Amino acid sequence: MNVNDSEVILSILGGCGYTLTENMEEADLILANTCSVRDNAEQRIHGRIEQFLLAKKANRNVRIGIVGCMAERMKEELLEGGKVDLVCGPDSYRRLPELVGKLRAGQKAIDVQLSRSETYAEIIPHRLDKTGVSAFISIMRGCNNVCSYCVVPYTRGVERSREPESIVAEARDLENKGYREITLLGQNVDSYRFTAEDGSVLNFAGLLAKVAEAVPDMRIRFSTSNPHDLSDEVLETMAAHDNICRHIHLPVQSGSNAMLEKMRRKYTREWYLERVAAIRRIIPDCGLSTDVIAGFCGETLEDHLATLSLMDEVGFDSAFMFQYSERPGTLAARHYADDVPAEEKTRRLNEIISHQVRSSARRYGSQIGLTHRVLIEGPSHKSASDLCGRASNNMMCVFPDLQPGVDRKGRYADVRVVGSTSATLLCEEI
To answer: Which long-range contacts (CB under 8 A, 24 or more apart) does 259-263 make?
Structure first.
């Protein structure tokens, strides 16, 4: 989402004469687009600001800005420190030219007003993907779920869905520019709901079908799904369209009903497992990944073991795994003690990682002998004589380049899996 927001920012600033530079010493304006989901992300930004100040010592005319969720959360605190000139929240990017104008007039600039309608629908993002193969399309902004640990509703505001024709237009624009794959983005894509002037309603399954049919030669992915809202209609839409990739990212966070209730996740362990069963029934070859939090407030050893058992029962392809870090202003910060000791959080996280590594090894190993159609992203990072790309199930495939010297980026290759690691399928081209 932050990559996509950065692309929107670049498009807006491009309209008033700014161009992107990779060299900080050349910059007139340095912006850090920030995330507040975890404390570690915010701490990294404080370190980056110190780097930016070194650039400012060399060029006093350079201006420094913080945009995104951290700007929304910390507001005046960032300006009061004297290190930052501009603070702009995620719903205020249209005002960036005006805010930058204030900087040039010697004033500080801040706008962190949240919106109930802003979706940046008609802005064509300035694409940052260097391969020119995959791109993001934001279909909605904000979130209404208010999970007790999550800061997003406070930094990105209420949920609002983007007008579907603008989404389709952006997909077609990407197709015309040579992109081969798009990812539809939302904090909870399954709650996408657009009401037209005639009163008709388009849900996420309808949008997914609309985009897939508008650009039949492009691959379609989406993220992120919420287990509470993932419907059979979405799964059946995926199964009905060959160009919708067979992969779902379905965050579970915990395998304990007590923790799920405390997290305000709106589903139980049993509900989650039923959704996984539906995925496997309707899309048997679907890849499945998840998010897991270790050491949430009040988590007992029994709760932790419930998470491990769920992971073993489901057998995820991959997972994003984190220690719980308290976020100021959230329901959990206001009402629950962050009472699992740091060393115990680390121990539990390491157990979660170990279980997932074994699960990934099994899942990737189960692909040996199967064939996949791979969208080539370019040379492998480890060897220029190999190509890499993702299968529909989102597994990374690496295989020898049979046409050295030919740029095959963005083309398809049919491959057979001959070996695997816990994160890569080793293949041969058919």
So the answer is: 259/296, 259/298, 259/299, 259/303, 259/306, 259/307, 262/148, 262/296, 262/297, 262/298, 262/332, 262/336, 263/147, 263/148, 263/149, 263/293, 263/296, 263/332
Cα 268-271-272 angle, rounded to 5 deg: 90
Q: Name the burial class of residue 262, with classes exposed (0-12), middle (13-18) and buried (19+) by CB atoms within 10 angstroms of its CB.
A: buried
Instruction: Please report, for the chain, how many H helices and E strands are present, in that order.
Output: 14, 19
**Alpha carbon of residue 411 to chain centroid:** 24
Q: What is the pLDDT of residues 31-86, one digit of tens each?
A: 999 998 888 888 888 889 988 988 888 888 899 999 999 988 887 788 777 889 99
Query: Identity (one letter) of the amino acid at 412?
Result: Y
104-162 pLDDT, tens digit per residue, is 888 889 999 999 999 999 999 999 887 889 999 999 999 999 999 999 999 999 999 99
Nearest to 180 by CA among 127, 220, 218, 137: 218
Residue 203 is predicted with a pLDDT of: 98
Look-up of token digits 């379905």: 250
Smallest CA-to-CA distance from 152 within 73, 224, 54, 63 is with 73
Predicted pLDDT at 290: 98
> For 5-24, what is each residue's pLDDT tens digit?
999 999 999 999 999 998 88
